[in-house]
Amino acid sequence: MIKRIGILVLGIALAAAPGAFAKGKQDEAPKAKLKIAALLPGPINDGGWNTAMYNSLKHQEEVFGAEIAYTENTPESDYEEIFRSYAENGFKVIFGHGFQFGKAALKVAPDFTDTVFIINSTNLSQAPNVGSFLVNDFQSGFAQGVIAAITTKTGVVGYIGGIEIPPIVAQGKGFVAGAKYINPKIDARLIMIGTFTDVARAKEVASSLIQDKADVLVGDANEAGLGVVEAAKAAGVYTLGCSSDLYEAVPSMKDCVITSVVESIGGGHEAIIRDVLSGKFTPKNYLIGFENAGAVSLASFRDKRGLYTDEQFAKIQKVIDGLKDGSLDIGK
After folding, report:
1. 8 Å CB contact between 168 and 192
2. Rounded to whole angstroms, how far apart are CA atoms 31 and 198?
3. 265 Cβ partners below 8 Å, 6+ apart?
4. Residue 106: CB atoms within 10 Å
5. DSSP string of 11-39?
């Protein structure tokens, strides 16, 4: 069962099961249900970063039979309060879904040593109960840049990032590097719009790029990224999804979606939770990429496979295979 927790998190009362006796001995009390929560910077239906975290929670619910909860659109001023409220209410693992949640987690964690705090998109850690989970964002962007460069007819492609934080910047730089790996002369543009929520602003910037002949765009800006997709659809150009399968997450926009770099963070989170449950958790950074089977992958090209010759498609596959087996050195 999902408990969708608002900005003011309500206390959750745990009812004690009545005692039962057999052969003069009291049965062991039933195990408490595993409780997992997450603080998200945006809405779960953004088709990207926040959708990926929601999907991870659903994955943990299915795998562990966990009780899950989340707070979406979490204001920075409430980070500490909400972390504390979840911990006080017995949540064993709490995720902060983004670099920005790190400082608050480090402050709250010492007061709740029985709770494990995991911060996504950073490499911080703090003994005994704070770890982090990081997707190789540069690598993900590199794959997107490769596909964009092979797809474009105009020689102009663009990456529109949200707020200028390390994971967004890293993926944008990877995008440019991947595009230039295919065509050193390509016009690969990297623009930060300074927001994760302003859909209109993202659409305006995307439309401006399209006017400058960009015909393949990536919007890596959480909810605001939907504006990039809207602009691409309206202009009849293409876009690539980030984090989640954009084709499935926003079906109304599927005509312009080529594929997505899908970050299946649920599997990575599952591994961390298994360490927690077995007592093997250590406060460290967990890094995933294409080399971790099933963790980062390309979604199906579906009806867009016809955009490519067999030679072009083989070139894309060769790059992905090189990322998977480590034979392709892309730098950072």
Report:
1. yes
2. 45
3. 52, 53, 55, 56, 120, 133, 135, 288, 295
4. 15
5. P-PPPPPPP-EETTEEPPPPPPPPEEEEE
Residue-wise pLDDT for 32-49, tens only, equals 899 999 999 999 999 889
Q: Is residue 16 part of a domain?
A: no
Q: How much is the pTM?
A: 0.78
Cis peptide before 43 (omega within 30 of 0): no
pLDDT score of 187: 98
For residue 56, the domain's CATH number is 3.40.50.2300
Q: Give the integer Cα–Cα distance in Å for 274 and 116.
A: 12
Q: In a 10 Å sphere around its CB, with 0-12 CB exposed, 13-18 middle and 19+ buried, how is residue 314 labelled?
A: exposed
Domain with 258 in it: 137-262+296-325
Give pLDDT tens digits for 184-222.
Answer: 999 999 999 999 999 999 999 999 999 999 999 999 998
Let me know if residue 332 belongs to a domain: no
| C-alpha to C-alpha distance for 21 and 11, rounded to whole angstroms | 31
71 near 6, Cβ under 8 Å? yes
DSSP structure class, residue 309: -
Instruction: Please give, one letter per residue, the 3-state secondary structure of 122-172.
Output: CCCCECCCEEEEEECHHHHHHHHHHHHHHHCCCCEEEEEECCCCHHHHHHH
Return the SS3 of 184. Answer: coil
